[in-house]
Write a structure and sequence with these properties.
Layout (H helix, E strand, L loop, with lengths): L4 H6 L2 H15 L11 H14 L23 E3 L5 E3 L4 H22 L6 H35 L2 H12 L4 H4 L6 H16 L6 H13 L4 H9 L7 H6 L5
Antiparallel strand pairs: 1-2
């Protein structure tokens, strides 16, 4: 990328990450109703996976750590035996079980020390932990896009501002705050299509990302099928090294 040494030092990935992250942090100072849609149900499913190691979420809708959601607003399919299966896809909660594990551990210790006495305090803390995690993910996505724009423009300064504008423009701006599937899916799809564009060798992790996209949300199934259709355009050494060649 074309730039002076000073520009390279200033327009760095680290500063871009913090610019995006801190901007998103400022949005948390405003009380809004953002995130009251599917987000609580994704978090409830994440708790079920982490604490119960299952996806039967009826007990998690009554969790002392999370949200108070009326029974008629459960995003579930209720079976005759009373078991409630979630409608929400399981992919994002699977990825986020360590995030909930961290939040839950902090709350347990905090409760013993006299903090988190009210359920609303625990709910807000969990939501904020997930929000901050998504802000960090958005910052990392910005650094990747900095590399993409840098390769396309060969101008460090321009690439830095394009990546910043890219991340701070809706809808990505909103998804940088919310525990939704859109941001992880956008990252995976962008990485895969960029590798396709650059004709870079595909590895097994890329193959797993393509397979995982429908688990994030069924609407990603078409993209997965499309990417599998592009397999012949990827360098084939992945298949030779991992699966061998057909004789």
């Amino acid at each position: 990328m074309k730039a002076t040494d000073g520009a390279v030092d200033f327009y760095s990935k680290k500063k871009l990450f913090w610019a995006v992250f801190l901007f998103l942090i400022t949005l948390k100072t405003h009380r809004t109703f953002i995130g009251q849609g599917d987000e609580p149900h994704y978090i409830i499913l994440t708790e079920s996976l982490y604490l119960d190691h299952d996806v039967q979420v009826k007990n998690n809708y009554a969790s002392p750590w999370l949200y108070d959601i009326p029974a008629d607003d459960h995003h579930t399919v209720v079976m005759k035996n009373g078991i409630e299966w979630p409608i929400a896809p399981v992919g994002l909660p699977l990825l986020a079980t360590p995030v909930y594990g961290f939040a839950h551990s902090v709350m347990k210790i905090g409760t013993m020390l006299g903090f988190f006495k009210e359920k609303v305090e625990r709910r807000i803390f969990v939501k904020n932990v997930f929000s901050i995690t998504m802000m960090a993910v958005a910052g990392l996505f910005a650094t990747f896009m900095f590399g993409v724009f840098g390769s396309l423009t060969e101008n460090t300064r321009l690439a830095w501002f394009l990546a910043l504008l890219f991340m701070l423009t809706p809808p990505l701006l909103s998804y940088g705050l919310l525990f939704y599937t859109d941001m992880p899916a956008a990252i995976m799809i962008t990485v895969l299509f960029w590798k396709l564009y650059r004709r870079k060798e595909m590895n097994f992790a890329d193959f797993l990302m393509i397979c995982f996209l429908p688990w994030l949300h069924p609407r990603n199934s078409f993209v997965s099928v499309l990417l599998f259709g592009f397999f012949p355009l990827f360098p084939s050494s992945m298949f030779q090294s991992n699966f061998g060649t057909c004789q």
